[in-house]
Amino acid sequence: MNRGGVLTCASQEDGKRIWQLRLEGSFSGSPVIGGDHLFIFNEEGKGFVVHLGANKGEIVGTHALGETI
Long-range contacts of range 52-56, CB-CB < 8 Å, 24 or more positions apart? Predict the structure, then answer.
C-alpha cells in the first residue's frame, strides 16, 4: 500500500506484480491481515475490507468512522 491509495499484490518468488487495486484517500497507517482479508483505514477515517484473491483484490466492505485517523 502506498500513501496514494494503491494496493499492490506481488509474487514472493520473483517480486512481479500480480494485481493492483486503488483505494480512496491517503494512507499512512499499517494495514492488518486476517485470513484472506486486509483491513485498512485512510487518513479521513474510511475503512476498507479487501478480499485478497489470487488473481485480483476486491473491496468487499467499507465503513466511515467520521473522524480523522
Answer: 52/9, 54/18, 55/18, 55/19, 56/19, 56/21
Using one digit for the tens of pLDDT, what is the confidence trace for 17-58?
999 999 999 999 899 999 999 999 999 999 999 999 989 999
What is the Cα–Cα distance from 26 to 18, expressed in whole angstroms? 22
Which residue has 485480483 as its cell numbers? 56
The stretches of the chain forming alpha helices (DSSP H) are none
Question: What pLDDT, on the 0 to 100 scale, is given for residue 58?
Answer: 96
pTM comes to 0.88
**Residues 26, 3 contacting (CB under 8 angstroms):** yes
**CB contact at 8 A, 50 and 38:** yes
Q: What amino acid occupies position 47? A: G
